[in-house]
Amino acid sequence: MILKNKIILFLKSVRNSAPLSSMPPRSFAIVIFALSLLLGCKIYSFKDVSIDYSKIKTIKIGFIENRASYVNPQLSPQLTDKLQLKIASQTKLIRTNSDDANLVVSGYISDYSVSTAAISAQQASANRLTVSAHITVKNNVDNKTDEFDVSRNYDFSSNLSLQQAEGQLITAIVSNISDDIFNHIFSNW
């Protein structure tokens, strides 16, 4: 997106400095070709999804349960929805509810805990929320199962209650954890 904005700014500066008709035809053609290549083929994108679509066509994404000792009631449904949307928007896989899907993703939130992150004047000045998920991916094509854990830490001011911090952090938690899950499954991270 940044590259796209830079190109647009460049074109505006070129447009303001000299009319396009005064630009040599060959230079104009190169600029148009480069723009169409970058924008049309999305070369500027950093998506690195490696799926063999000749073998893997369907996916079942189970509800990610919350088995942590403290349960944030918003986390499981939001994390499940975000992962489903990410897979739908960044892959060509067809979502199904069948256990015979080529890939079956299931998991649970295994940790949701708060600890002290920083101390100042013998008092906690920052707290740390740790969120972890355990994910299982069953590949029915290759008859393999991959189990892994993803975990993220989120620091927040000790002046905030956990509920206040959750309100501020829930979007980042859901986004980061779903990105980590997606990257592990599809980007060989």
Key features of this structure:
alpha/beta, six-stranded mixed sheet, 6 strands, 189 residues, flat
Low-confidence sequence ranges: 41-46
Helix content: 25-40%
Give the amount of beta strand, in percent.
25-35%
Radius of gyration from the CA trace?
23 Å
The number of helical runs is 4
Counting copies of identical and different chains, the oligomeric state is single chain
Silhouette: flat
H-E string: HHEEHEEEEH
Kindly state the number of beta strands: 6
Q: Profile the largest sheet.
A: 6 strands, mixed
CA distance, first residue to last residue: 23 Å
Helices and strands: which structural class?
Answer: alpha/beta
Task: Provide a descriptive summary of the structure in words.
The protein is of the alpha/beta class. It contains four helices and six strands, in the order ααββαββββα. The protein has helices at residues 2-17, 25-40, 75-90, 162-186, and strands spanning 58-61, 65-66, 94-95, 103-120, 123-139, 144-157. Strands 1, 2, 3, 4, 5 and 6 form a six-stranded mixed β-sheet that branches. α3 (75-90) packs parallel to α4 (162-186). Residues 41-46 have low confidence and may be disordered.
